[in-house]
User: Fold this.
Amino acid sequence: MGDLGELYQEVILDHNRRPRNFRRMESPSHEAEGYNPLCGDRVTVFLQVDGDRICDAAFEGAGCAISKASASLMTDCLKGCTLGEATDLFARFHRMVTTSTDQEVEDLGKLSVLSGVREYPARVKCASLAWHTLMAALDRETSVSTE
Ligand code: ZN
Assistant:
C-alpha cells in the first residue's frame, strides 16, 4: 500500500471532515434510518426520486470516519442514477468490501477508496451501513440494522 494507502486515507478523512450532501432533506420521496450497533454509527438517508431516477440524495447522522465518508461518497454517486443502477452499485460495492484481500476487486472509481476496509472486518459494516440504509429506503423500509 505505502503512499497509495495514505492517499486513500486522505480522501476518507476529507469526506469525514467535509461530508458532501450532509443535510436533512425536506419532503424526500424515500427515507430510512440505519444503525450499526457494533460501532454505534447512525445514518439517515434521504432520496428524491423522480420517475425511475434519483435526482437528489442526502444524509444525516453521526458515526465514525469510515461510515460518514462512505455515506458522503455514496450520495455523490447516486445523483442521476436510475433505481436499477443504484441497486447494481450496491451489489458491486458490497462485493468490493467483502471480497478477501488476496482477490482482485472491481475498480469503482472514487468508491474504491473504501476497498481498504477489507483488511478490517469490523469496519466493513461501517462502510456498508449507508448502502444498506439506501436499499431499505428504496424498499420502503423505515429502518435497518447491520446486526
Ligand atoms: Zn463505524
